[in-house]
Amino acid sequence: YKAKSTHSGHHVYRSVDNRHGDARLRTLQELRLALTEDQLILHYQPKINLKNGSVSGVEALVRWQHPERGLLFPDQFLTLVEEAGLMHALTQEVLRKALDQSVLWAAQGRTLTVAVNLSASSLIDGDLPERVGTMLSARDLPATVLMLEITEDFLMADRDRARDILTRLRASGIKISVDDFGTGYSSLAYLRDLPIDELKLDQSFVFPMADDARAAALVASTIDLAHGLGLKMVAEGVENGVSYDELVRYGCDFAQGYFMSRPIPAAALDDWLTARLNAAALP
Ligand code: C2E
Ligand code: MG
Ligand code: MG
Ligand code: MG
């Protein structure tokens, strides 16, 4: 494909545009390959129950093991996936992999819930509850192993649809978490209205709490707000022991963060879990 170029004055810009266009096209082809050639992998970050220190579950986070560019992170390719209309395929792939991993954990006697992130475009799909149900039953997994993380933009985009889809998912036993809580444009009213289980406080509120009393006060009040509405609170981005201890004091239910573990491959998680259990067993 060659763009028609007539004005010589635009020549430089057009050739720059073309270069970008070629790169884009190549990336799109690579993205399709990523899906067909099994280059997408999941890393798992543990989620700690702050009441007793146990590991309640993990969050699955997608990475692209690119044949030349190495390990790519979501911010390097998710926008493209969305633009290429491949988000639906990615979501299916991530769900499949996360649930396959759940089967392995169940066989090892590990009781872990797995949380999968859903883009607004994946959730808006009315067949999602049924498809997820089929994937669970094909693996003999109870719906309670799965948690879906959604964002406020989905909740606000089409409230009636959101309510319908969430209600159906939740009726089957799947738990719903509102990710990046506090950063969206939503109104607080949806917290009262919509069928959700958990709020996941965005890391931008958690990062400053260790050395900023007002930031800490905001976190503490948000935890109370969640509890007042019968919701669980998860803090993400816990990077140090000071924040961890404060969250425990404020009654936060769960936490994730580099302080406990980065997202890691399933095999590394297995070692991490074993080491943690052994440490807990020490007198
Ligand atoms: P998220 O769901 O809010 O995930 C949290 C992000 O923060 C992850 O980045 C995680 O690695 C990172 N993180 C966790 N603990 C800490 C910490 O203590 N400090 C800092 N600085 N960062 C921490 P990641 O894996 O790069 O994912 C970025 C975003 O990409 C996710 O944000 C999620 O919105 C999206 N994403 C990831 N996987 C998927 C997926 O399978 N499907 C969809 N639709 N989106 C995904
Ligand atoms: Mg998430
Ligand atoms: Mg988040
Ligand atoms: Mg995020």
Major sheet characteristics: 8 strands, mixed, barrel
The topology string of helices and strands comes to HEEEHHEHHEHHEHEHHEHEH
Number of helices: 12
Strand residue content: 15-25%
Radius of gyration, taken over Cα atoms and rounded to an integer in Å? 21 Å
SSE-based structural type: alpha/beta
Distance between the termini: 69 Å
| Secondary structure tally: strands | 9
Q: Please give the order of strands in the largest beta sheet.
A: 1-2-4-5-6-7-8-9
The ligands found in this model are:
ligand C2E, magnesium ion
The best one-word shape is globular
Domain EAL: 24-277
Protein name: EAL domain-containing protein
Organism: Cryobacterium breve
